[in-house]
Design goal:
The protein has helices spanning about 20-35, 40, 50-55, 65-75, 90-95, 110-115, 140-150, 165-170; strands at about 1-5, 5-10, 15-20, 85, 100-105, 125, 155-160, 175-180, 190-195, 200-205, 205-210. A six-stranded parallel beta sheet has the order 6-5-2-7-8-9, covered by helices on one side. It has a three-stranded antiparallel beta sheet with strand order 1-11-10, with no helix packed on it. The protein contains eight helices and eleven strands. About 35% of the residues lie in helices and about 20% in strands. The relative contact order is 0.20. It is an alpha/beta fold and about 220 residues long. The protein is globular. The chain has two domains: about 1-20 and about 85-210, HAD superfamily/HAD-like (Rossmann fold, 3-Layer(aba) Sandwich); about 20-75.
Length: about 220
Amino acid sequence: MLIETRAILLDMDGTLVQSTAAVELVWGIWCQRHGVPLDAVLSICHGIRSEDTIAQVAPHLDMAAELLALNQLEFEHAMQGSAIVAGADLFLGALVGQPWAVVTSASRRVALERLAICGLPLPDVLVGSDDVSAGKPDPQPYRLGAERLGMAAQDCLAFEDAPAGVQSALDAGCQVIQIGTGSAFDPRVRAVVPNWSQLSLKAADGQLLVELPAHS
């Protein structure tokens, strides 16, 4: 299968970087401080901004103070169990000189730290949780990512691993490839692949060509 696009938009956690251990550690510390059941947080936090999680599980808390504390915890524990999703480094290497951006629900500070710790290239364009007024699954993050690349969202291919991110990218107008196992979160997803090792990228005449296995 060959998918054509003009630009690439990439989620980070779970898509480029396997950071589940770090995320669960940070939320575990936060939940212990506030007496919030960790299971309640882990059932909703994947792929969405910290503030959107807090708003659901502890709306009575001071949001600004909690975000500051969480951001610091995430920064301190950014390297805890973080590893590259297989093949992500090679795919990003092939993107050098091409239009691409990271669109993440992490803060800009945490995202840059986590990418650097994993030795991945830092993007010229990064949309973090602090760049938008509405996070995933709202389409605003992916619309902003495309805009900052000077592209229409319809000309971008997004890579995502979470239902909220898939919805955000699709509703923005992007094509979407889902990273992970199992079935697609949405019938509009172009393909589902377990990791990056089965993907290849070529550039030709202003287009990016992403090649996937036929069964994806």
